[in-house]
Amino acid sequence: MGKTEYLLGASWPRCGPIKGVDASVLASKSVGNGFEWHQSGSEMKGKAMAINSPATSVSKDNSAATWAGVRVSRARQDQLGYGISIGILMLDCHIPFVPGDVGNASTYDFPVLFQRVQGATGDAVITRQDSAITPYFVEAARLLEAQGVRAITGDCAYMGAYQAAVAEAVEVPVFLSSLMQVPLVVSMLGRHQKLAVLVANGSTVSDRLLVPVGITGALRDRLVIRGLEDKEHFRSVILDESGELDFSRMETEVVESATQVLKDEPSVGAFLLECSDLPPYSHAIHRATGLPVFDWIGFINYVHHALVPHPYQGFF
After folding, report:
1. I want to staple 97 with a disulfide (CB 3.0 to 4.6 A). Which of 101, 115, 152, 316 is the partner?
2. Residues 188 and 288 in one domain
3. What are the residues whose beta carbons fall under 8 Å from the beta carbon of 297, sequence distance 6 or more?
4. How many other CB atoms are found less than 10 A from the CB of residue 286?
């Protein structure tokens, strides 16, 4: 939106005048991807003369405004629900998503919206990062955007191969891969430390995935990538899609992998879990290794906090 200023009832995009609200005393000023309402004087002469007014606010696309205790809301065309901050692109797969998984709605303290991507099978995305399905990712992302989500993520970090195309196609923030956290986490570690990354299939991690999410050169050299494809239950559930998950068995395999990485590479200073199915086991990894564990749910919560900041209350 830049710094374009709008006058309610005169140039308010898409909605037009609102009955019962005096346009002479309201103006909006675009702020990032949203809007903020401010009181103004009657002599605005076609331009918003904004001053601070914490009692007034408006949603990012002007569908709902609160001013002086009066709430005015307008429906968005073809939108089914409201108040959803995060949209999640989903693989076309047959995997049970337990609490803590990106694909389980009860994982979150806020509403999320899921959208399956046509043709995005495990083979197409995890194994091949098939560029032929890029249009389907774009289409699915636009559907989420049309339903009012404020940011879009995915349920497989190998979707990072489609990050650039999707980000260019929509107007909301896009973070399709948990691996986008790598530069941040590595910057937290000393130069002598490495970051262990547990991935669904280590044999298919290539530049097709890493380059689009900014992992190249010296940064890539700081990673210890450990695939879980050799773990019997993990492979059965996640890669072969057997449809049945034994939580205890899965936790044991994941923790075994993490502790083995630490034995093989004592310089590891933190873990990052690539796979969206691994956050349920973050606590167990931390308990077994004593190291920080970064996962996809923490990433999603971080972005949600940026989209819906909480006011702080207390005393000074």
Report:
1. 101
2. yes
3. 100, 102, 107, 108, 279, 282
4. 15
